# Entry
Amino acid sequence: MTQRQFASVTVELVQGDIANQPDLDVIVNAANAELRIGGGVAGAIHRAAGPGLEKECIPLGPIRPGEAVISSGHNLPNAHVIHCLGPVYGRDEPSDQLLASCYRKALELADWNGIARIGFPAISTGVFGYPLADAALVALQTIRDAAPTLETVSLIRFVLFSDADLAVFDRALKEL
Ligand code: ADP
# Structure
């Protein structure tokens, strides 16, 4: 596990399953526009949360790339879920700004809700096709720049699905 401090925020990188992070207050979903179950991260989160999550979420959608909404965590061990719609790489432009907006808005929502510990997956890097190393830099730079403005968020954990993905984020965090 790698950790780095930005202002009063600890950023850490781990390999694991975003739907199994019981010590976090909120986990972030790599959602689809309609906020339905879907596959990848969204499938894992909705399966663990139970059908109440989709029932709560559908009226909150559809959302646009770069946007984020917050719901409760239902059967998850986390009190809340923040749902972000990342850009589809090569279609939703400018993709780097839209991806940065996801992280910024998720952190704003967390701070407005008094949340301390938040976990992110690598938004847009699965079905949406964003190259992982580029996405890692955008994600980590955005978090570094937002850190001094955050009042309640004190831990930001990236949960990467594979050791190879973790190594890519690790390199990006060291390069910042
Ligand atoms: P998007 O549609 O935004 O690309 P995906 O869910 O397809 O979202 O994938 C985003 C990233 O999350 C990919 O790198 C994928 O390997 C990873 N991933 C998939 N399932 C999980 C999970 N359960 N926990 C953490 N990361 C996951």
Summary: The first helix runs from residue 40 to 49. DSSP finds five helices and seven strands in the chain. The chain has one domain: 2-175. The two ends are 17 Å apart (CA to CA).
